[in-house]
Design a protein that fits this description.
By secondary structure, the chain is an alpha/beta fold. It contains nine helices and ten strands. It has one domain (about 25-215): NagB/RpiA/CoA transferase-like (Rossmann fold, 3-Layer(aba) Sandwich), CATH 3.40.50.10420. α7 packs antiparallel against α8 (about 105-115).
């Protein structure tokens, strides 16, 4: 079911000490339109969704039944109801993450995780979108961003308009000053250990037509 989770930003803002007024604002329509145009010029078509339900419905249109799918850890995906849809089996996708968690041998599980970034379809959130068109994502190990540059057959990025910022410099600042402190707070609760910014990807241009799609949602989602 779509909605807030215990690790949604609203539940961690105070602990993380971040500034949502600066980094989690609702941009005016002119800025959204400019961003969509800039992202499209960089080879990434944009599907706009009015809300979380619309975003989830867009995923079922983009990804055919029977396709193998994998996803990186993403509060945004949880908030739109992706995990619940996947668990229900109603989308008809082949869940590679389920195969990974079912493997008890650590070495084999690691191999499956590395292979999973080459999934036919890989779902991911993002940490920032610059109005100049670049999309930015960071994580600790690379398990989410490893699929971005080349590995995944298709990359489907789901992102709220709250992550739109004026420039690439602002996008990287948003990661450091907003997304990371929230993720660090989440990691402490979820895993009992702090996080770090380990691997970052800037999607500045996509050369393969149709490989990457951005689903841009008119809601505040994720970090």
């Amino acid at each position: 079911m779509a909605g807030l989770s215990q690790y949604s930003a609203v539940n961690l803002v105070g602990e993380a000490g971040v500034d949502p007024a600066r980094w989690n604002r609702t941009p005016p329509e002119a800025e959204v339109a400019e961003t969509i145009y800039a992202v499209g010029k960089r080879g990434v078509p944009v599907v706009r969704a009015r809300d979380r339900a619309g975003a989830l419905e867009a995923l079922t249109r983009i990804v055919p039944r029977g396709a193998e799918v994998m996803n990186g850890s993403s509060t945004t995906l949880i908030e739109i109801g992706y995990e619940a849809l996947l668990a229900s089996g109603k989308a008809g996708w082949v869940d590679l993450h389920e195969r990974i968690t079912a493997e008890n041998d650590n070495r084999k599980r690691g191999e499956l995780r590395r292979k999973a970034v080459t999934a036919e379809y890989f779902f991911s959130g993002a940490n920032a979108i610059a109005m100049t068109g670049e999309i930015v994502a960071c994580d600790r190990t690379g398990s989410r961003v490893g699929a971005w540059p080349f590995a995944a057959g298709h990359l489907v990025i789901v992102c709220g308009t709250n992550k739109i910022v004026p420039s690439l410099d602002d996008a990287l600042r948003r990661v450091r000053e907003y997304a990371f402190p929230l993720e660090n707070a989440r990691a402490k609760h979820a895993y009992g250990t702090p996080s770090r910014i380990g691997k970052c990807v800037i999607l500045a241009n996509e050369e393969t037509e149709g490989r990457v799609t951005l689903v841009l949602v008119d809601e505040a989602l994720g970090y």
